[in-house]
Amino acid sequence: MKLKTIAQCAVLGLALSAMPLQAQNQKADSTKLFSLSRLSVGGYGEAFYTRNFYSDNMFRYSHADRYRDAKGHGRVDLPHVCINLGYDFGKGWSMGSEIEFEHGGTEVAVEIEAEETGEFEHEIERGGEVALEQFWIQKSFGKGFNIRMGHIIVPVGQTNNAHLPTDFFTCYRPEGELTILPCTWHETGLSLWGRLGNWRYEAMVIPALNSDMFNNANWVKNASASGYEFRVANHLAGAVRIDNYSVKNLHIGVSGYIGNTFNNDIVTNEFSETSQYKDVKGTVVIGTAEFDYKANGLVVRGNFDYGHLSDASLISAWNKNQNHQSFSPYPRSLVGEAAIAYGGEVAYDIMRPMKRTGGQQLYLFGRYDYYDSYIPSATALTDYQWTDRHVMTLGVNYYPIKQVVVKAEYAKRFLKEQYNDEPMFSIGVAYSGFFTK
Q1: What burial class does residue 141 get, using C-beta atoms within 10 Å of its C-beta: 0-12 exposed, 13-18 middle, 19+ buried?
Q2: Does pTM surpass 0.90?
Q3: pLDDT below 70 — which residues of the chain?
Q4: What is residue 422's three-state secondary structure?
Q5: Mind giving me the DSSP string for 90-109?
Q6: How far is Cα 136 from Cα 204, in angstroms, rounded to an integer?
Q7: Is 90 left (phi over 0), alpha (psi -120 to 50) or beta?
């Protein structure tokens, strides 16, 4: 037995010595590369039922009288279900990723129709999206300076900076920012960020928005999307964010964006010297401010967002006159010279005064939002007054544990008097957290 064991060891030694040195090093490195302690797995998700006590008909603003007594309808939805994966490679290198399923994702099936002589058919069974919302590689040189490269969140606005369902009290994301800005806004680019004392900063270079996707109902919200397998980047844009935590329990943040958006599509045009579009840039400038205060069971939040679009009248004319095929993604809509959104919410944990809650929390909250996605230029011929809205929301958030919340609310949109107000009730459950330590 001893001789056999010695012989086996000798054979193994010869095999290892015969292995190229580079392969041996790679094998050794691979054993060190992966460690469960460096892996982070998490995510968040939401499931809601909503009853709209108003009509969603597309003509409810142009022919408001017809739908004044509409019964409305109910709906169930999975707004967001996300899976996060991250890994710390060591020596300051790490990666992060997030796969998002919006509204349940998509379901496309291939079926054989027997009654149609065995023909294969593609059938879309459910709408929704599956998107890679984050995928980045990061090099950290310390708390004060980090470089992040890849597909990253653009933290312009309060909701984009804190978009988990446990970061806000309403069932759906706050309506003002959700209407006029991409949300969650994610782009492929380069980010520099860090924290210095009570200050945190972030600056990034990303592809500019596409003015062909602007519209009256959502301003620039849909302009970060691309109907192609790639994101067009004829123009680049810049975004910046600064946060301060100097006052105990208080966070204050400001953010901004600037970029030229016109002619930022795969279908580009060479404009002659006499063309009215020769000097059009479509510069979008966005500025936001926000605060978040938490102490003794009280939570108070507020935000303000304002955006401006240069050459809005010419871009509106261009968008309306596009001669693309009917299946193109362009809305061919007028767009406002500006858009605005502001709001705030106050909540209190009524279980806090109780001595034994087992970590449970029960927040009663109220929220107010105002937004207008279409503020026309002085020369505009059309003013869509239904885009001017106030929203009041009252509700409750129950946390049986820190990572899980049950939400219920009653909300009502108040439009100008020629339109019908839009009340609704929502209830559902959400979670957010990491499954690994």
Answers
A1: exposed
A2: no
A3: 1-33, 107-126, 267-274, 323-328, 437
A4: strand
A5: ETTEEEEEEEEEETT--EEE
A6: 13
A7: left
Separation between Cα atoms, residue 275 and residue 280, nearest integer Å = 10
Beta bridge partners of 275: none
What would you report as the CA-atom Rg of the chain, rounded to the nearest whole angstrom? 26
Pairing of the two strands 338-349 and 236-244: unpaired
Nearest to 322 by CA among 366, 372, 263: 263
Q: Which token pair is 336?
A: 């406002």
Tell me how far apart the 2 most distant CA atoms of the chain are, in Å: 98
Q: Which two tokens stand for residue 406?
A: 């049950």
pLDDT at position 85: 95
Query: What's the full length of the chain, in residues?
Result: 437
- Report the SS3 class of residue 152: strand
180-213 burial: b if 16+ Cβ within 10 Å, else e: bbbbbbbbbbebebbbeeeebebebebbbbbbbb
For residues 175 and 179, what is the distance between their CA atoms, to the nearest angstrom? 6
Phi-psi region of 25 (alpha: psi -120 to 50; beta: other; left: phi over 0): alpha
The tens digit of pLDDT for each residue in 95-139 reads: 999 999 988 877 655 555 544 445 555 556 667 778 889 999 999
